[in-house]
Amino acid sequence: MEFEEKIEIIDGVALNREETNLGTFYKKLIAKKYRNVIGLKQELTDNVVFCESLKANAAMAEQFRNPNQLYFKVNEDDGGVYEIELEQGNYQTFHQLLTINPAVVAAKDYIDNVVKLVASMLKQLHERNVYQCCLAPQWLFARKSDNMPMLLLQGSFFTSMSNQRELYEGFEEYMAPEVFLGDAPDERSDVYALGKLIQRLYADGSLPFEYKTVVATAIDADPEKRYPNINLMLEDINKKRSMFRSTVAFAAAIGIGLLCLFVYMDMMPEPVDVEFVKPVEEEVSSDPYDNPVTAAELGLDPNDSIFVAATKQAQYSDNQAEIERVFRHQFTREAESTLSKIYSKENMNASEQTFINSNRTMMEDLLHKRDELASKAGMDAEQAYKIANEIISNIQMREKEKLKSYGFQDKPSE
């Protein structure tokens, strides 16, 4: 392996990796362009049935031609299938979206739009006798432009695997119990998967009226008690939403009527008996303590609270700056230690497989350390990623310059 190829591998190690049911999702430098790839788990690539099912799923996705279905190709070499390369685009896993930006679910109509989009795709798949089986956030992707979900794999392609637990390990709760136990998936099992996704979207809040009873029916353990298809599930959601709005409108009309009646009665004049009494002469107190002293008389500024607030704000800013300083210092030390090993003369002269394996392990340890330091410091994850990226990029540039002094050179530009 040439020097510049090894540099590409190092540069291609993503700073924001995500573990999915298939393996590690990250950006990889391929032919001088960053591509979204998933490095498949070895226990899956060793399974011939899985590899053939993966190819069949890729062929279906290409024919599906839906803007919310991710197209992908299966990459393989002499050793067999090792990764899938996703179509070009700017997206992340749905799990990453909900972790980094949990407030997205609070945006107006966002959850309703997600449910409508996913339901529409499921109906189109069912027309092809294809079933999704699982809608765990780690199974979905999201476009960064509008945060709308995108499907990747359809579970019905993998039902011939003797042990589907290898594929769904960690996401069992998002699957219909009968499918996980080996029964063939159908529309009822996808109704269950959609119900579980809605439940996840409201994990930090309570389900609204139109979803509460619908989700309870959708995720019933008994398939016969669920909705037989997605259409009936959506119809029930819309019916309960209309019922709720009608009830609210009726209650509002009654409230407005009562308010108008109250205002009318309050404005009606009432007879008042007036009793004339001799006013009491006001006595001037001789005790100076009977009259309160104003803040101005004491020489105090009644707006001192403004300065108190400003002081608190300054203290908060100082605390944030100190947190960032500590994180930068600690992560720089870790990054320098790791990257100096990756870019070392000995590592660059290692065999290709040893080089790839050692670099991946060291970078994963470094990224784990980043998350650990950010958590201990109480720093926002997104801010920690940004600072870590900056530090790693600076150290990489410095280490590349050192490599040149060892005699390693990039290819000259043509």
Helix percent band: 40-55%
Q: Give the low-pLDDT segments.
A: 11-15
Radius of gyration, CA atoms, in whole angstroms:
32 Å
> Helix tally?
14
- Mean pLDDT across the residues is 80
What is the global morphology?
flat
Number of strands: 8
Largest beta sheet: strand ordering = 1-2-3-5-4
Sheet with most strands: 5 strands, antiparallel
Strand content: 5-15%
The structure class reads alpha+beta
CA-CA gap between termini: 20 Å
Give the topology string: H per helix, E per strand. HEEEHHEEEHHEEHHHHHHHHH
Structure in words:
- With 414 residues, the chain is an alpha+beta fold.
- Helix content is 53%, strand content 9%.
- Strand 1 and strand 2 form a beta hairpin.
- The longest helix is centred in the last third of the chain and has 39 residues.
- It is flat.
Blueprint (SSEs and pairs):
Blueprint: H1 3-12, E1 18-19, E2 23-30, E3 33-40, H2 42-45, H3 48-64, E4 72-77, E5 80-86, E6 91-93, H4 94-100, H5 110-127, E7 141-143, E8 149-150, H6 165-168, H7 177-180, H8 187-201, H9 209-218, H10 230-267, H11 304-342, H12 345-348, H13 352-377, H14 381-405
